[in-house]
Amino acid sequence: MAAADAALASEGNTGVFAQMGGKLLLVAGIAAVVAVMVVFWLWSQQPDYRVLFSNYSDKDGGAIVAALEKLNVPYKFSDSGTAIMVPAAQVHQVRLKLAADGLPKGGNIGFELLENQKFGVSQFVEQVNFQRGLEGELERSIQSIAAVDVARIHLAIPKPSVFVRDQQKPTASVLLNLRPGRTLDAQQVSAVVHLVASSVPNLPTTNVTVVDQNGNLLSDTTKKMGAKNLDPEQLKYVEEIQQSIVKRVESIISPIVGAKNVRAEASAEIDFSVQEQAAETYKPNQQPDAAAVRSMQSNETKSANGEAAGVPGALSNQPPPAATAPITTEATNADANGQPVNNAPPTNTEKNLTTNYEVDKTVSYRQQPMGGVKRLNVAVVVNNMPVVDKKTGKVSYRALTAAEKTQINDLAMQAMGFNKERGDSLAIVNTPFAGEPQEVLPAIPLWENPRVIENVKDVLRFLVGVIALFVIYRKVLKPLLSKLTTPPKTAANQGEAPDAVVNISADGSNAAEKPAYTQKIETAKQIAKDNPRMVASVVANWTNGNE
């Protein structure tokens, strides 16, 4: 019996060690199950990724990835490899943080190139670095335009010379890669040209060349507008005038017939020719008393008949010849009747009067500005007037009356600035509007709807995670927990019951057995079943007489 007790004790120690090993394995199994559950849960709760930056250069891409790793922000690349994606909840925050670090730079190097200038560099290297920095800054400025995706600028700055005759003006070439579906009008191209010319000293606008990605020359400063060419600015001006007229006509008629019951179109003929006229006009002669005297000249001349006359000369200056007979007769101043006689020689009198009047003249100079309106043509279509039945509330439509048409016609003429002498025309038509047909799109099956597919993927991901967690809990975790929480059966626990009274019969057999003895028998059977070698050794000791 002592050997049996020793065997039982040894078996109990072995059971204790086995029990401790089982507990360790149980704890390890529980940890593995919990890890698997966490992995499934994280897989089912993967965040939604959104684009952080796209179409970046290789240099900017490497800098962005390095910054994301430094910030411990998860990222991944798109299927095409042209975009970096981060969780949707962190997109804006990460963009602001990267912007504070100057990322992305767009592949352009600006004046920060001069910050790491080495000591002792030559003047040529300094000039090259300055030119590269200036080109990079201009590229960044031009890329801020909405229609421009990428810009490249090449500056040709000649070396300055002390001789005026040898001085050369710098030139610039600008290559613009526009965004898909975007174009630059003449005004925007001119803005780019002036931006570059204003940033480089002594660079005229005529020396700036702008080319797009298709090789089209956008800044053709030498091209002159011919008679057969259309000026985009003029076409834009005509369009603005027509839209303004349409807006005025519709806004004045809409309160009468409704905002959606009137349509108007206008056609404007604009005169873009420039006319200059100078005129000098003379009016008919006026009456002398009403005319203005400019100057007056008067001359009076008197001469006698016996006086010397004629052309002055040698003959007229000779003295008179000598008298042939003496003059003895005394001059008398009376005639035969005794009346006095005037013996004075006769005289001639001549008067001249010249009067100059002001000339009535008008000089005018007129210059007609470009863009004058030659003619306006406006067409207006008005829908029938809606009428609401007071009893049923049903809406019906009726044609316009003559008075309503006249009223609308007068208002439209005033709004468009109708001029009969100019040849303007206005046409108003009253007709019911045709209803716009509703486009019936074919129903997209649920299995082809992208939004439904994404939602189904999310739901399936969640369900798979939940089912996997439930199966692991029922099949693995719950049995392990039950074994861990159930107390083990040991020999000490089995012998805790109080000993029962044993009645021995006359032949030496037990009349009654204690419960403890029964448990020991069962334990011995279990030991014999689990470890038959040990039982065989005990029986051998018994047969040899060794108790």
Automatic annotation (TrEMBL):
Domain Flagellar M-ring C-terminal as annotated: residue spans: 254-433
InterPro entries in UniProt: AMP-bd_C_sf, Flag_M-ring_C, FlgMring_FliF, FliF_N_dom, YscJ/FliF
Membrane-spanning residues: 24-43
Segments for region (Disordered): 279-326, 333-352
Topology versus the membrane: Multi-pass membrane protein
Any Pfam family hit: YscJ_FliF
Repeat keyword on record: no
Family membership: Belongs to the FliF family.
Function as written in the Swiss-Prot or TrEMBL entry: The M ring may be actively involved in energy transduction.
Name used for this protein in its record: Flagellar M-ring protein
Origin species: Methylotenera oryzisoli
Lineage: Bacteria, Pseudomonadati, Pseudomonadota, Betaproteobacteria, Nitrosomonadales
